[in-house]
């Protein structure tokens, strides 16, 4: 006999489908408008406000879940990027895929930044950061990427440029068709190993 307090498999499946709809609606709504409300998201998901709160106690919790979902989807895409061979060409390939993901989720990240502490955001991006760090280290070993600046600063600079390009695109100052080339040229110019005579500060 199943206890009244124990969800049946069908109830669990229904709840999982409801959660999936809400998370998808949150990703879409927040990607369009980082200030989207719980009511906006519930309406987009086709559920009532009480149903949404039955799965997510706060807007912050829902925003985090939406960001996690987007990052997991993005990680699957980036995991398929060929990072072998020349580090510069591998970085250009990684940037092309990363730009598309950042462009799609820039507003979602803005929403997350307004409700989640910086430390939590750092944790959520740790896998992506490790991938970039590993590629930069390999480029340094190949002698094509600079070693005179902290690795953390190089990774952060790449992050700033990607998000800056997304903001410029949303503002209409950077065409989406040009963004991949602009981002790659900017990041690679920063990462490139400087000439020996330029390594010392006058």
From TrEMBL:
A Pfam family: TetR_N
Protein's name in the database: HTH tetR-type domain-containing protein
Transcription as UniProt keyword: yes
Domain HTH tetR-type: 16-74
Matches recorded under InterPro entries: Homeodomain-like_sf (IPR009057), HTH-type_TetR-like_transc_reg (IPR050109), HTH_TetR (IPR001647), Tet_transcr_reg_TetR-rel_C_sf (IPR036271)
DNA-binding region: 37-56
Keyword field: DNA-binding, Transcription, Transcription regulation
């Amino acid at each position: 006999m199943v206890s009244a307090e124990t969800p049946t498999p069908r109830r669990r499946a229904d709840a999982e489908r409801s959660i999936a709809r809400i998370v998808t609606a949150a990703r879409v709504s927040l990607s369009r408008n980082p200030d989207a409300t719980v009511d906006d998201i519930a309406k987009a998901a086709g559920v009532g406000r009480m149903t949404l709160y039955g799965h997510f106690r706060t807007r912050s919790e829902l925003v985090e879940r939406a960001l996690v979902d987007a990052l997991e989807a993005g990680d699957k895409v980036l995991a398929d990027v060929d990072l072998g061979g020349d580090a510069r060409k591998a970085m250009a390939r990684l940037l092309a895929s990363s730009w598309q993901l950042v462009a799609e989720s820039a507003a979602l990240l803005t929403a997350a930044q307004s409700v989640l502490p910086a430390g939590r955001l750092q944790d959520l991006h740790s896998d992506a950061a490790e991938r970039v760090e590993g590629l930069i280290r390999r480029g340094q070993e190949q002698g094509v990427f600079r070693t005179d600046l902290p690795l953390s600063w190089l990774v952060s600079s790449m992050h700033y440029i990607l998000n800056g390009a997304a903001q410029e695109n949303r503002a209409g100052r950077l065409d989406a068709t040009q963004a991949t080339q602009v981002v790659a040229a900017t990041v690679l110019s920063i990462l490139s190993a400087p000439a020996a005579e330029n390594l010392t500060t006058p």
